[in-house]
Amino acid sequence: MEHPIHFKVNDQTLYGIVHEPEPDRAGPLVVFLHGWAGSRLGPHRMFVHMARRLTARGCVCLRFDFRGRGDSGGTTADASIRSMIADATAALDFILPQYPERQVVLLAICSGCKVAIGAAATDARVGGLALWSPEPMGPMRDTSSKNRKSLDALRTYGRKLLRLETWRKLLTFRINVRMVKKAVGAREAAGQREIHDETLWLNQLRNFKGRILCIHGTNDPETAASKAGYTSLCSRLGIPQEVHEITGANHSFYGLDWERKVIDLTDTWMVSR
Amino acid sequence: MTEENIEDRLKRMIASRLFLKIAPEAIEDNKSLMDDYGVDSVSLLELVVGIEEEFGIVIPDEEFSIKHFATVAALAAFVGSKMTAE
Amino acid sequence: MSMEQSVLIPRGRDTLSGMLYRPEGEIRCGMVMCNPLFEERKSSHRIMVDAARAFAANGCAVLRFDYCGCGDSTGDFKDFSCPDWREDITHAARFMTGQIGLNRLGLLGLRLGASLAFEAAQMIESLEFTVLWEPIIHGRRHFDYELRRKLVREMVTFGQSRVTRATLLKDLEDGRPIDLDGYAVNSRLFHDITTIDLIKAAAQRPRKVLLVHIAPSGAGPRELSALKEASLDGGAHIDLISAEEDPFWNLVGLVECPSLIDKTKAWINLLTSNT
C-alpha cells in the first residue's frame, strides 16, 4: 500500500510517499535520498520501481522531496548538502516512531549519497547505506570534478542572476550590483565549505556500524575517483563494503537494462543483510 | 564562407542557445565545451538543432561523435566540412 | 498563500497521485495541470509547482497529478499510452470539480501535456478554458527530437552514438519496443505520439484558449499561429502570446519563469472576472 505523507522542517513542509508491505512482513526501513536536481521519483522513476520491489519483499520505504525540490516547500537556491542532511534527519524523526523495530537503510543516488554519508556519520540510527553513483567527497575530489561542480553552480546561479530581466534592472540601477557579486562569490565560498564538511563527515563515518553497498557505472566519469575513494575509506574504517560496476552505464543509469541490474543488485544486498 | 566566420557564428549561438550568458567573444576556440563551459547532454541537443538551423546543414546520426563537439575549433571544422559537402 | 494537500484519485484499478493547491480565500476557478513526458517532466517539475502555488495564491485552485504509469501513480509506463492519459485528464477534471464545488474549470498543459490537454478538452463538457504552454503540434517531429536526445546522450556516454534514428524507428515499426533512456517505448505509444496533429484536431466547439509560445527571445511562434488559425475556424476564442523564458523543460538546475506565470495569471484573471 502506498500513501502520501508530509512532515515539517523549519516551518517548511516536505512531501513524500510511504510504501507499506503486507502485514507481518519484516524487512528494513529504507529511506530514499534523491540527487541535487532530482526528486523523490529518482531518474526515470527508478526510486519508484526500487521501492515497489523492496516493499514486495517486506521493507517499508519512504521517498521524499528535499526542501526546494519536487513538491516540497522552500527554495532551491537555499538548499545545500547540510540542509539536505537536516531534511534526511527529519525524515527519520518522522517515520521511525511508526516502525521502531526496523533497521534503517539510506538508499541514495548521486549527490544524495553525500547526504547519506553525512547523515550516517552523525546519526546512530542509520544501519546501512546503499549508494548509487556516489560522488567523490572531500579529498577524493579531483580537479576536473571540482571544476565541473563549480561550473554547474555558477551556471545555475548565473542563470538566475544574469537573466535578461536582471540586466534590464541593472541598467536602470534597480539592482544592487554589490549584492549580486556577493551572491555569486558566496556560492564559490560555499563550495570550499562543502569540501571541508565532506572531509569531516568522511572522518566521522568511523562511528557508523553498518554495511555499505556501492554501485557505479563504468561510463560515469566520476567512477574511477569515487570507487577508489570509497573502497579505501571502507577499508581504513573497517566497514563491510560490497562494490559493483554496471558495464556501460552512465551516471544516472539512463537505460532499462542498467536500471534493472542496479535494482536486482540492491534487492539482493538488502535481503542478504 | 571562411572558418573564422563559422567560429564567430558558433560562439554567438553557443552563448545564446545554451544559456551560458557569457559574451560570445569570451568563448575560446580550443577550450573544452564540456569541461570548461559546462555543456552537458541536454544542452548538446540544443546545439545540434541550433547548428542545423543556423547553417542549413544536416548532421547524420552516424556522425554523432563527441570529437566533433569537443571545442569550438573542432565544431567549426566539422560544420565547415558539412557545408562544403552539401 | 494557499493550502496544499496530497491526493489520491481512484481510476479504475489504478490510482492517480496528485497535489491539490487550494486558495485560502474565495475560489474563482479550478485548473488541472497536465505534465509533459519523459525527461521534460523531470526538468519542468519545479516550475509547475511554482506555477500552481502562484495560481492558487491568485484564487485559482490547482490540481497537479501524474498520469498512470508515471510519477507516483500506479502502473508501469510501458502499459499506457496517450488515450489512457487523456482519460486520466478527464478523471482528474471530474475529481477537481468535486473538490472545489465549482463548474469553472480549466486545463493547463506543458509540451506533450498541452497536446494531451488540447485533445482531452473536447471530452470534458463543462470545461471553460485551456492554457497551452508551448504545445507539441506535430507528434512525429517531437518524437524525432526525443530520439535525437537519446543519440546525444549515447554520444556523451560512449563517445559516439551506437544507434541511429532509422534503426530505432525500424524496431518500433516492426513491433519491437525501444529503450528511450530508461523509458520503455512500444509501438502503441510510438503510434499514438507520432499521430498527434493538433492542427487537424483543432477544437470543434467554442472554447477559450490561451496559446503561449515560450522562447528566450526572437523567433516568432509560427506553428502556434497556424494552430490559432485552425482553431478559430472551429469557432474557438484564442489568444496567442509569447513569454520570454528559457525552455525550462530542457534545463537542469535553478530556473524561474516569472513572465510566463504572470502572463498566464493575468489571462485567467481577465477571463474569470469578465463573466
Describe this structure in words.
The complex is a heterotrimer of chains A (273), B (86) and C (275). By secondary structure, chain A is of the alpha/beta class. Chain A is built from 8 helices and 8 strands, in the order βββαβαβαβαααβαβα. Chain B is mainly α and 86 residues long. Helix content of chain B is 51%, strand content 0%. Chain B is built from 3 helices and no strands. In chain B, helix 1 packs across helix 3 (72-85). By secondary structure, chain C is an alpha/beta fold. Chain C is built from 8 helices and 10 strands. In chain C, helix 4 crosses helix 6 (187-194). Chain C is globular, with a radius of gyration of 18 Å.
Summarize the structure.
The complex is a heterotrimer of chains A (273), B (86) and C (275). Chain A is α/β, with parallel strands linked by helices.
Largest sheet of chain B: none
Spans of chain C of at least 5 consecutive residues whose pLDDT stays below 50 are none
Q: What is the distance, rounded to the nearest whole angstrom, between the alpha carbons of the first and last residues of chain B? A: 13 Å
Largest sheet of chain C: 8 strands, mixed
Q: How much is the radius of gyration of chain C in Å?
A: 18 Å
Instruction: Report the C-alpha radius of gyration of chain B, rounded.
Output: 12 Å
**Structural class category of chain C:** alpha/beta
Strand tally of chain B is: 0
Question: What percent of residues of chain C are in strands?
Answer: 15-25%
What gross morphology of chain B would you assign?
globular
Give the percentage of residues in beta strands of chain B: under 5%
Secondary-structure element series of chain B: HHH
The number of distinct β-strands of chain C equals 10
Helices and strands in order, then pairings?
The complex is a heterotrimer of chains A (273), B (86) and C (275).
Chain A: E1 2-9, E2 12-19, E3 29-33, H1 46-56, E4 60-64, H2 81-95, E5 104-109, H3 112-122, E6 126-132, H4 143-161, H5 164-171, H6 177-204, E7 211-217, H7 223-237, E8 241-246, H8 256-271
Parallel strand pairs in A: 3-4, 3-5, 5-6, 6-7, 7-8
Antiparallel strand pairs in A: 1-2, 2-4
Helix pairs in contact in A: 1-8, 2-3, 3-6, 4-6
Chain B: H1 3-17, H2 41-55, H3 72-85
Helix pairs in contact in B: 1-2, 1-3
Chain C: E1 2-11, E2 14-23, E3 29-34, H1 38-57, E4 60-65, H2 82-100, E5 105-110, H3 112-120, E6 127-133, H4 139-158, H5 165-173, E7 178-180, E8 183-185, H6 187-194, E9 208-215, H7 222-233, E10 237-244, H8 258-274
Helix pairs in contact in C: 2-3, 4-6
